[in-house]
Specification:
6-stranded parallel β-sheet; single chain; alpha/beta
Length: about 325
């Protein structure tokens, strides 16, 4: 049976998601947005593009959440984007209200769907979605770690003048300035970053600068765009998660997943490596962290916990 992908939010990320889903032939695509005409217009444009790019899935636009019925995957990007000078945390109140309403609609119309939340502040929003919807936590995840890791990989490839395909990097923790790039679990040509520094291919200072740029990678794009935030790379990251679920690829991907004791964390969504297959989150991978990495991860987890606490206070 043909799959159906629901995209809630027809902004820059939503439109790019629709394009990528169509090109990969993941199934029929539904673009949803509260703005009259926006999802319909983008859907029509994309369908016409199919004639030149040789894809023929059905792409439709709607302002009615009831059209989510039958969706196998729902990707949520709705909410206010960051503006220059804003932190992801500044979006907490407004976007939590939006996500709360969407959560109830998803529960009502497609409770069996695999849900990917992209809206910022990511870790708090995916936690909020799961609590409001009551959907199984293994079917609700957040897109962040893939994006953060891809930024880290690109910066490393540029610095070392090598193919990005030779770089494999991992970033854990919350999606924000406290994220944790794992140097011992990141490699260039099969050699760890720690070894590259010891061998003199990369100075510790430059590596530290790249780590810091990775942590603030989203803000760098926001400051350049001036009216909006990143959308190409976030969309590609979310599509990879959807693809692994729909095709049961069982890829190991860094995502915001619900932890129940792993890494010493309970009842929080934090970025960790997970295996995504036909059952959703099929396994959470636990790395052995050194003392420094564990301290940084604990700091990142606390930042997520503070956001969740603020979210709880908003509803009291």
């Amino acid at each position: 049976m043909k799959k159906k992908i629901g995209l809630v939010g027809a902004g820059n990320i939503g439109g790019t998601l629709a394009l990528l889903a169509a090109q990969k032939k993941l199934g029929d695509v539904l673009l949803l947005d509260v703005a009259p005409g926006l999802p319909q217009g983008k859907a029509l444009d994309l369908c016409q593009m199919g004639a030149t790019n040789c894809f023929e899935p059905i792409i439709s636009g709607s302002n009615n959440m009831a059209d989510l019925k039958g969706c196998n995957v729902v990707i949520i990007t709705a909410g206010l984007p960051r503006k220059p000078g804003m932190r992801r945390d500044d979006l907490l109140k407004t976007n939590s209200e939006i996500i709360g309403k969407i959560a109830l609609d998803v529960k009502k119309y497609c409770p069996d769907a695999f849900v990917i939340v992209v809206t910022n502040p990511l870790d708090a929003m995916v936690w909020h979605f799961q609590k409001v919807s009551g959907l199984p936590s293994h079917k609700v995840v957040g897109m962040a770690g893939i994006l953060d890791s891809s930024r880290f990989e690109m910066f490393l490839a540029q610095e070392l003048n090598t193919s990005i395909q030779s770089v494999s990097a991992t970033v854990l923790g919350g999606h924000g300035d406290t994220m944790v790039p794992l140097l011992a679990h990141s490699y260039v040509g099969g050699i760890s970053l720690e070894s590259l520094v010891k061998q003199g291919y990369l100075s510790q200072q430059r590596l530290d600068e790249i780590v810091e740029r990775t942590r603030k990678g989203g803000g760098e794009i926001v400051s350049l765009l001036k009216n909006g935030s990143a959308f190409y790379a976030p969309a590609a990251s979310a599509i990879l998660m959807a693809e692994s679920y729909l095709h049961d690829l069982k890829l190991t991907l860094p995502c915001a997943a619900h932890l129940t004791g792993q890494y010493g964390v309970d009842d929080l969504y934090v970025g960790v490596p997970i295996i995504i297959g036909a059952n959703g989150v099929e396994k959470i991978i636990e790395y052995q962290l050194n003392t420094q990495e564990k301290t940084m991860l604990d700091n990142s987890v606390q930042a997520v916990q503070d956001l969740v606490n603020s979210l709880k206070n908003l509803s009291n």
